[in-house]
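Quick one: structure tokens for this chain, please?
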Amino acid sequence: MVGRVGRRRAIAHMNLAAAKAGLRFGQAVAHATAMVPGLVLHELDTEGDNAALQRLALWAQRLYSPTVAADPPDGLVIDATGCAHLFGGEEKMLIDLRRRLSKAGYAATVAIADSWGGAHALARYSRRSVFVAPAGALGQQLKDLPVAALRLAPEIVQALAKPGFDTIGELEATAKGPLAHRFGMEPIRRLDQAHAREREPIEPVFAAETPRAAKIFAEPIGAPETLARYLTELTIELCAVLEAASLGAKTIDAWFYRVDNRVESVRIGLSSPARDARRLAKLLCEKLEKVDPGFGVDKMALAAPGAEPLAYSQDDALGGKRRADLSGLVDTLRVRLGPDAVYRLASAESDIPERSVRKVPAAEAPAAFSWPVDWPRPFRVFPRPELIETVALLPDQPPASFTWRGVRRRVRRADGPERVFGEWWKADAELARSRDYFQVEDEGGERYWIYRDGDGEDAASGSQRWFMAGVFG
């Protein structure tokens, strides 16, 4: 890829084959074509690349964190504070991010560190595709990386190389006074940013059509009741913007810009589009306990990415029945318990009981729930059947007694067996598998749903062990 350095055309990007041929970034095109005859050249489209990077940042913002920005020319910066646990931890979040980018056709290296500058350096120069720097150990991780990892201009990197500054560790060990006198304050500023000694605010990306509202304060604020008051005012302003566009918010992001250049953010997700200012303000204010205002907040901003047309339902003036609107309750529970803790159950196409139920979003319209067969099913089916000990005659008799969770129960009545075969069309291992289910009642009148893994005769049909599948009533 050919760009311009001053008035000359030079190599701006290249692939691995070009690098192995001895070419280098910033090399004049005339020199490069003389070294490698038949070199394929393409003009660099800087504006197109930046626009694509902005779109990628908006994509990452919807999936990972409210605070995402482009890090030109080829990167994204994401504030993962309070977000990584949603993916099972920082490393799993990076693996998920890299996997999604790979499916979209992007090769990526990813890193998490205590600072933007540190993560930038590790992602580009650590030679590891996934890197999670331990908290407080950033200096140790950066010391062997080249000076170019500090996001310094090429001319500064070249100037530092002349007296022998090749790595970040060598630069960090040098007295700052002589360093600033000879090379200016830029190397020191970048060192402080990389080692998290100087905060670097991330200005989140916004789509042009994203409804948003912001307020700048003459004096920093920090008291919880003051934050809640202004957050409520901003929510009313955001809802007015949504109403003017006939939209409802599905997600609302809030940013709190602190005076120490740190940005705190929270996000609420809604089960259906909404713009009820009172309800939304209440949900946002519940998130304030996760916001650390530090020495004060001097700017607050709200945005509703992915806003959707708001569908209205007409009240029946003649007293007809309407479906109850549970979206307010669902949203409150999602904010307090987490987005994955509130859901509905729906049927799935499977003969295996623990596979025949699936979780769906709580806002999804409930569908008629039915089991695939006519046999009665228990009120509660365990997601993972529990092993029990039984006394039973093979091959078709129900158990005379069984022990479950340390308690022995004698069977008074039983019905069965109901044979369920393995789903051979899903896995070859289930070709010969089968289960025999029984409904049993103990001496206390409690009813259970148990099964034997196998037909009681053929070892290929299962382990012949007994399991508790569910309980009735």
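The mean pLDDT is 88.
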